Amino acid sequence: MPTQTLTYRFRFAAGSPHLLGGYSHALTLVIFVFFIILVRSGCDESGLFSFLIRSEKEFHDAAKRNDTDKMRELMKKGVDIKAKNKVSRTALHWAAGAGNEQALRLLLDHNNEVDVEDSFGMNPLLLAAWFGRLKILQILVASGAKLNCENKNGLGLLHCAAQRGHSRVLEFIMEDLVEDVLLDRVDNSGKTAFHLAAEHGQLEVVEFLIGMGCTHGLKDKDEHMALHLAAKHGHNEVLQKLVETGVDIDERNIDGLTPLHLSSDGGHYECVKLLLQACCNVNALTNKNMNALHYVAQHGFERETSLLLEAGVNTDTVDGQHTSPLHIAVLHNHTEVVRLLIDAECDLDISDHRLQTALHIAAEHGRQDIAEMILIAGVNLKLLDKQGKTSLEVAARGNHVILVDMIIKADRFYKWEKDHQVETQHLRSVTWRLATKDLSRGEWKSLAQHWGFTDAHIRSIEQQWTGTKSFKEHGHRMLLIWLHGVVIAGENPIKGLYEGLTGISRTDLAGESMDRGTGLIVDIVQKCFACQQ
């Protein structure tokens, strides 16, 4: 709002006592002074008060766009070239940060405060380093700018240039100003320029600082080396360079996390892979007794989980709460990670600090798909939690009807299985081999239809997994469902399987053809069938 307008409105109000509530002239004067402050402050684009009058604001804007003609015009009118905005930034700051050489020289010719700081402790020299303005930096140095300056966070010239990846600025600093700048100087958090370059993925700067002889293994206040920071933020090229320096890749930070923990927690596949290839300790534990698998399980990182499992990570490590990676994956509903852990033969019966198994957690939260996988894999249904509840009772308490049915059916099957251990072992081999090795795409559907599965049943099974080889998972699930029904009905599963294979014209698998190309299944089926006669 124009100054004249505000002043006019105030004078109108002051001349009309009823508008000011009849206040005294002294109070009127106070209010007038307040109005003048508001007028001088003004409001900028953000709606916050600025400490610039219009001409000063125009002067700052001219410095930002390198408009020296406008700057000279305003200077002739007596503008305060040292005027500061709400964050104590002057026109010199704007010119330096924007790389406006002409505006900078004009200001330096009329202003000797080359080291003036804004509210964040940033002076023109630091801004030039931050934005990579090499020419501006050189001009400021030649004008007597203080080299060992730092902002409120303790960032110096090297820190600013390194974090932003300005290698040419760093070269100038180290080659021309080396006597005045400490290579391993730390900021308020204990970070050197090397730390910041690694943290922000500035590979060229990292290589330059290594070449200049910086210390590779220094730690910040959180006991992070540059290696930790590169791993944490997923900068695999920087991480590779740091590994090559020979630093200890299993070094722990203040919380006991190694670079592998940090890269796993961030889901940085290439970094995890690199560290494993460098022979890091895959089973390293944090202060909370967590290994890398706990972190990937928490976030559901499937590819990283596979990497760790292939590297031999301990699937059954429990943290300070006696929680295993499986507990965590189930709690966060990461189905595929649960599948990977089960395939890796993790212990399904581990109890956490509440004496809950993974199945208890699945039952409590209604995780049907996960519960089904755990039940198929075989789990102890008799284990009790701290409240003396089985997983079945937990599911019932939560009114998870489908889960209750699943657990009851599994319990009945386990009882049958216990009395038919030899047959069950054969059946498991047969169903898995059929689904993954011998039945071609579409044949599992034919087999299902032969056994009376409806189209709706088949569609429901197909919804569980997708992908080019998902028919194998579909077939295996169908076979397990069929097997459960046959067993509960008291029928002969071996005979049913034999007849089903014959019914879909796979006599080679059923053993009725002369061509017995899949000898393992033929032998098992025939032996089991003979045993049942």
From TrEMBL:
Top-level taxonomic group: Eukaryota
Chain ranges passing through the membrane: 20-39
UniProt record, GO biological process: signal transduction
Entry annotated with the keyword GTP-binding: no
Key words of the record: ANK repeat, Membrane, Transmembrane, Transmembrane helix
Residue windows of the ANK repeats: 54-86, 87-119, 120-152, 189-221, 222-254, 255-287, 288-320, 321-353, 354-386
InterPro entries per the UniProt record, alphabetical: Ankyrin-DD_containing_protein, Ankyrin_rpt, Ankyrin_rpt-contain_sf, DEATH-like_dom_sf, Death_dom
Annotated Death domain residues: 443-510
Protein name as annotated: Ankyrin repeat and death domain containing 1A
Organism of derivation: Oncorhynchus kisutch
